[in-house]
Each structure stands twice: as structure tokens, then as C-alpha cells.
Amino acid sequence: MTDQVAFFEGVSKSQDFNAIDNYSPRKRREKLYETIVDVKHLELTDKLRFQVDAVVEMETHLFPRWHQGGYHCSIEEICQWMADSIPRELYNLLQIPTHPRKFGVMPYVDFTRPPM
Fold it and tell me: Of 8, 14, 48, 64, which is most buried with the most CB atoms under 10 A?
């Protein structure tokens, strides 16, 4: 875990416009909004915008607490905690493939189930 922590500590020190702490939330919101509107063809309601903002805030403010020593767990655990904390409406919306062949991606696979 030490190498992962050191990496995230290092990249989070800069504060310029394109620093990870500024760039990452800006681009993350942009991509989630784009997925909802342009890929899923849904209206970006205030409720969905709030859910996106909640996820981005979690990713940009809570995740760094892990690499700053605020949570004593593995990267796998903190990632699972984050996935479990995504609002279910947004989580479910993002789990449904739109058209796998059109976008060149594999069909949805439920990784929470053991392989057959």
C-alpha cells in the first residue's frame, strides 16, 4: 500500500488550474454529464446533477483522506466503499450498456458474481 499512497500524495500537492485536484473534478463532472445526456439520452435533472456532484465530491475529497492516512485500509477496500456509496439511481444508470457493439465495448458482465 505504501507505493500507492506515495503516488497519490505526490500528485495532489500542486494547485494550478490543471493540477489533479482541480482538473480531475472538472473533467469527471463533464464526462458524467456527457454520459447521461449524450450516451444515455436522458435529461440531466437537478437530482442527477446532485448525485454526480456527490460522487465527484467523494472522489476528490474523501478518497484523498485515504492516502493522507485518514482511513487504514487497502486500496481495494476504499474503492469498494466508494462504489457502495454511489447513489443507486446513478450507479444503476451507469451500469446499463447503451449499445455494446456501437461503442466497441464488451457486453455487461456482473463482476460481483463468481465466474461459472
Answer: 48
Under 8 Å between Cβ of 15 and 22: yes
Q: What is the pLDDT along the chain (116 residues), one digit of tens a residue?
A: 567 667 666 666 666 655 666 778 889 999 999 999 998 899 999 999 999 999 999 988 888 888 788 889 888 888 899 889 999 999 999 886 655 555 555 555 565 666 55
Whether the pTM exceeds 0.90: the reply is no
Domain ranges of the chain: 2-11+20-95
In SS3 terms, 36-96 reads as HHHHCCCCCCHHHHHHHHHHHHHHHHHHHHHHCCCCCCCHHHHHHHHHHHCCHHHHHHHHC
Crossing angle between the packed helical segments 46-57 and 88-95, to the nearest 10 degrees: 90
